[in-house]
């Protein structure tokens, strides 16, 4: 389990959950408002509305990734089966001014990212369409399935898609926040492989968004947050993939081993001809042990040489379908019994800086090592130039391409058990992240980009990851498709666009 807990670096997100939730948009709603809203929903959709304490409600509530999310209790959960159901729910919410949250896989870490207290939650898990069309090289996905379910259905057709690398990650948040996948170095973000969306707008209309129809909305949905609409179907390109190779190697952390892993990683990041490999390096403190880990995947099923000459204390590898490799080598990492804090940043490749980050992590978290359930994870994954070019039709493209460099996405992920440790753990995480950005800025290697699926609730995702011109465009599109501001006011959680006129250049010493 120690090996598998380390693989938490691969977490993408939930149905999205700027900084995140505006303080004025509280996730704590008066119970009388929640009761009124749930009564209105029950009157129109009696078989889909479930009160607190029912099995259906409890199942949804227990599947949130973090314990912080599980501390919020909506008055009811509504489980739609179709876009028409979602349309009716949105109309009822608008007419009754009912605050709500939306959940797909439930994988964002911070409280209120996809849950609400006293309002209601739209649980999209029942919208579990997975229709594979191998002759058309596409798959139609509802927002409800988990990626393990998608890969299992696709496997007999010898195809795969740009999806999550952990079994229990949901479709919705992963694709609406970009989505890093094993094949991203060749095919871009998951969002770049969606060619059509079915979306419920704030007035209840159900529309398609693609390059020809509602093309502006299609562009904005590549980094949607909780701003434009509730996506009820994603049409994605698939690619031929009868099998892949995957391996995880875990070593005791030593400076020589860690350095060796990072040198190999740096060579991989700069290898412009390599479109078939995925590599990541992770440093992890877990259960009293400091560990270093290498994760490798080859899309052509070619076994890869280990990234370190040291002898691993644990090694797992497999050639099989994407489903089998994820299920047997990469997965089983998600334990929904921990509290967590995340922080992400993007830099140019710099092995010395990465080693210094690990040293600082040990300095900051050493005094906290006796806190129950503490794990610290520092992961490094690449945004190569080829990767960035795949995002050419996304709001993030102009921001990412400014550096004209191969980049590395860094995730700081801290987990613990006790609620009483919440403040100190979040402060330590943000202190570490702020030090990392300040130090990277001083060395001239910091990039402004903040990957939305790894960000915490304080990080300014839109101000830092989209150019001012593209942010203006996103705000205009939001005004066009939600002129009443219904989703801005009622849809709680996730990342919100900054107010029109309030966007500004954000200094690197700001979150």
Describe, in plain words, how this protein is organized in 3D.
- By secondary structure, this protein is an alpha+beta fold.
- The chain has a domain at 243-461: Vanillyl-alcohol Oxidase, Chain A, domain 3, CATH 3.40.462.20.
- The protein contains 17 helices and 19 strands.
- It has helices at 2-6, 31-44, 55-62, 83-96, 147-154, 171-176, 184-187, 215-220, 255-270, 322-330, 351-365, 385-389, 397-400, 422-442, 461-465, 468-481, 486-490; strands spanning 49-51, 76-78, 100-103, 120-123, 130-133, 138-141, 159-160, 194-200, 206-209, 230-237, 239-240, 244-252, 277-286, 289-298, 314-320, 339-348, 375-383, 407-416, 446-447.
- It has an eight-stranded antiparallel β-sheet, sandwiched between helices. It has a five-stranded antiparallel β-sheet with strand order 5-6-10-8-9.
- Strand 5 and strand 6 (138-141) form a beta hairpin.
- Helix 2 packs across helix 4 (83-96) and helix 11 packs antiparallel against helix 14 (422-442).
- The longest helix has 21 residues, at 422-442.
- The chain is globular.
- The model is unreliable at 1-18 and 503-510 (pLDDT under 50).
- Belongs to the oxygen-dependent FAD-linked oxidoreductase family.
- GO terms for molecular function: FAD binding; oxidoreductase activity.
- Residues 70-241 form the FAD-binding PCMH-type domain.
- This is FAD-binding PCMH-type domain-containing protein.
């Amino acid at each position: 389990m120690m090996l598998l807990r380390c693989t938490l670096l691969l977490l993408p997100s939930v149905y999205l959950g700027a900084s995140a939730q505006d303080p004025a948009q509280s996730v704590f709603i008066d119970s009388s408002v929640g009761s009124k809203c749930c009564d209105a929903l029950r009157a129109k959709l009696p078989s889909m509305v479930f009160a607190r304490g029912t099995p259906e409600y409890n199942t949804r509530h227990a599947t949130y990734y973090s314990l912080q999310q599980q501390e919020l209790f909506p008055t009811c959960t509504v489980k739609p089966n179709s876009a028409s159901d979602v349309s009716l729910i949105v109309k009822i919410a608008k007419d009754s001014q009912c605050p709500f949250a939306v959940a797909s896989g439930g994988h964002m870490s911070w409280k209120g990212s996809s849950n609400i207290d006293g309002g209601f939650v739209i649980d999209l898990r029942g919208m579990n369409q997975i229709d594979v069309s191998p002759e058309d090289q596409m798959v139609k996905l509802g927002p409800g399935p988990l990626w393990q379910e998608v890969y299992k259905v696709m496997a007999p057709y010898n195809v795969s898609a740009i999806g999550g690398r952990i079994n229990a990650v949901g479709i919705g948040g992963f694709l609406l926040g970009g989505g890093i996948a094993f094949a991203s170095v060749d095919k871009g973000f998951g969002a770049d492989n969606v060619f059509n969306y079915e979306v419920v707008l704030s007035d209840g209309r159900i529309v398609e968004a693609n390059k020809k129809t509602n093309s502006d909305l299609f562009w904005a949905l590549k980094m949607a947050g909780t701003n434009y609409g509730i996506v009820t179907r994603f049409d994605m390109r698939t690619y031929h993939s009868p099998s892949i190779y995957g391996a995880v190697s875990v070593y005791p952390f030593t400076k020589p081993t860690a350095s060796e892993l990072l040198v190999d990683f740096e060579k991989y990041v700069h290898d412009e001809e390599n479109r078939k490999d995925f590599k990541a390096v992770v440093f992890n403190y877990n259960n009293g042990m400091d560990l270093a880990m290498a994760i490798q995947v080859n899309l052509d099923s070619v076994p890869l040489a280990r990234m370190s000459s040291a002898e691993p204390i644990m090694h797992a590898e497999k050639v099989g379908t994407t489903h089998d490799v994820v299920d047997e080598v990469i997965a089983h990492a998600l334990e929904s019994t921990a509290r967590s804090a995340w922080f992400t940043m993007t830099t140019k490749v710099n092995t010395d800086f990465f080693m210094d980050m690990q040293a600082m992590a040990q300095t900051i978290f050493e005094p906290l090592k006796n806190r129950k359930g503490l794990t610290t994870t520092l992961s490094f994954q690449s945004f190569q130039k080829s990767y960035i070019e795949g995002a050419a039709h996304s709001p993030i493209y102009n921001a990412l391409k400014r550096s004209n460099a191969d980049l590395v996405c860094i995730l700081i992920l801290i987990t613990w058990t006790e609620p009483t440790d919440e403040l100190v753990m979040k402060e330590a995480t943000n202190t570490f992240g702020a030090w990392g950005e300040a130090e990277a800025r001083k060395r001239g290697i910091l990039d402004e980009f903040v990957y939305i699926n790894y960000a915490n609730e304080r990080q300014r995702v839109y101000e830092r990851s989209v150019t001012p011109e593209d942010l203006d465009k996103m705000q205009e599109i939001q005004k066009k498709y939600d002129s009443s501001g219904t989703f801005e006011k009622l849809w709680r959680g996730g990342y919100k666009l900054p107010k029109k006129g309030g966007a500004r250049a954000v200094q690197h010493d700001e979150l």
